[in-house]
Amino acid sequence: MSKPLIAITGASSGIGEATAKAFSAAGHPLLLMARRVERMEALNLPDTVCRQVDVRDREAIAAAVADAESQYGPVDCLFNNAGIARLGDIGEQPPEEWDETIDINIKGVMNALHPVFKGMKERRGGTIVNMSSIAGRKVYPDHTVYCGSKFFVHAISESLRGYLAPFDVRVIVISPGIIDTEVLDHVNDPNTLKAYKDNKVRIGGGIAASHVADMILFAYQMPQNVLIQEMVVTPTRQEY
Ligand code: NDP
How far is the CA of 81 from the centre of ligand 1 (A)? Predict the structure, then answer.
């Protein structure tokens, strides 16, 4: 019997891409969503629907989910991963960067949940993995709105976990520290970028996205009555 469908937002690079590869290697059909559709298509993974989706577009996500489900059956796991890190000095940062962070990291997370969680509740099974960050557990002065967006992920995950637990649907939060991806490409404030990079060098560098992907696959593969509620992963030398 074929394995269930896994949906991943932000699958065109970094942790989302690594997780797509891990679940594909485990034999799952995939729905991959991001704006750079050519990057997802270039992965050339079997039984995979790639859709150009901006997570700010609720209808586009719903349409992509409906399309993939018509081919592979219901989404059994959503990796709600798409996000942007517009880090910067809050006194200098243009409010447009706040808007972007809120629209993608907060509203986008809700938009991706909307077409999947009610079906999981009705089917009495499924797994949601919401992407937070170490910045969703503690605050950093130049991460103000980003921290706010990731604390949001923790709050709604805890609430949703309580809502869905009686229906055997699992809600997992993963909070990585410094992972080697394209995330820093989106930091426009040169001082913040320099401080981040200096700290990264100081701790001996970030770690590979494949480690995060392996953790997500491990948590998913546990029996449905076993819930790893939260996972925090950092480079060993990242002490805060
Ligand atoms: P990347 O920049 O490599 O990946 C980000 C992914 O999100 C891309 O696939 C990008 O696709 C997608 N994305 C961004 N904006 C949108 C949008 N509006 N609509 C759809 N997709 C979007 O970085 P990471 O892999 O590191 O980031 C993945 C997640 O991990 C983020 O939520 C980030 O906050 C979180 N994280 C990362 C850490 C790190 O150190 N790397 C640490 C902690 C958390 P595209 O541009 O093609 O749309």
Answer: 7
Count of C-beta atoms within a 10 Å radius of residue 204? 12
In-domain check, residue 65? yes
The DSSP 8-state label assigned to residue 185 in this structure reads G
* Residues with catalytic function: 146
State the Cα–Cα distance between residues 170 and 187, nearest whole angstrom. Answer: 33
Q: Which atom of ligand 1 is the closest one to the Cα of 18?
A: 25
Q: Which of 19, 51, 81 to mutate to test the pocket of ligand 1 (most atoms within 8 A of CB)?
A: 81
CA–CA gap between residue 205 and residue 92 (Å, rounded): 28
Best residue among 39, 50, 183 to mutate for probing ligand 1's pocket (most ligand atoms within 8 Å of CB) is 183
pLDDT in tens, the chain (240 residues): 689 999 999 999 999 999 999 999 999 999 999 999 999 999 999 999 999 999 999 999 999 999 999 999 999 999 999 999 999 999 999 999 999 999 999 999 999 999 999 999 999 999 999 999 999 999 999 999 999 999 999 999 999 999 999 999 999 999 999 999 999 999 999 999 999 999 999 999 999 999 999 999 999 999 999 999 999 999 999 987
Is 26 inside a domain boundary? Answer: yes
Q: Quick one: which atom of ligand 1 is closest to the CA of 11?
A: 9
Domain CATH number, residue 54: 3.40.50.720
Tally of domains within the chain: 1
Specify the residue with its C-alpha closest to ligand 1, atom 39: 179
Question: Is 229 inside any structural domain?
Answer: yes
CA distance 117 to 137: 24
- Domain residue limits at 31: 5-233
In a domain? residue 238: no
Which atom of ligand 1 is least distant from the CA of 206? 40
Is residue 101 within 8 Å of 142, Cβ to Cβ?
A: no
